[in-house]
Amino acid sequence: MKRTPLENFIVERSCKGEGTREALEEYQLTRIKDTLSYAKSRSRFYAQRLESIDLSEIRTLAGFRQKTLTFPPGI
């Protein structure tokens, strides 16, 4: 299937020109881990909420999906 100009732009910006699913997932995982790291280091609230999350243990998107990032009210 032919890619749209938007898809080409996203691949160029995020996957260093590689148009594979693996490259996109690697990019997504890197950005997710960057965001969590930023939140943990800049916010006492998120540092406390995410203290049980070891970012070095997350190696795939499937591994990330297994982590609990939401909590019931009052916790």
Keywords summarizing the entry:
75 residues; mainly alpha; 4 helices; 57% helix; elongated
Walk me through this protein's architecture.
The protein is mainly alpha-helical and 75 residues long. It has a domain at 5-51. It has four helices and no strands. The longest helix is centred in the middle third of the chain and has 22 residues, at 21-42. The radius of gyration is 16 Å and the shape is elongated. The N and C termini lie far apart (47 Å).
Low-confidence stretches: none
Number of strands: 0
Proportion of residues in helical segments: 55-70%
Number of helices: 4
The secondary structure category is mainly alpha
Give helix and strand order, one letter per element, not per position.
HHHH
* Rg over C-alpha atoms, rounded to the nearest angstrom: 16 Å
**Shape estimate:** elongated
Distance between the termini: 47 Å
Topology:
Blueprint: H1 5-14, H2 21-42, H3 44-49, H4 61-65
Tell me briefly what this model is:
Helix content is 57%, strand content 0%. The protein is mainly alpha-helical and 75 residues long.
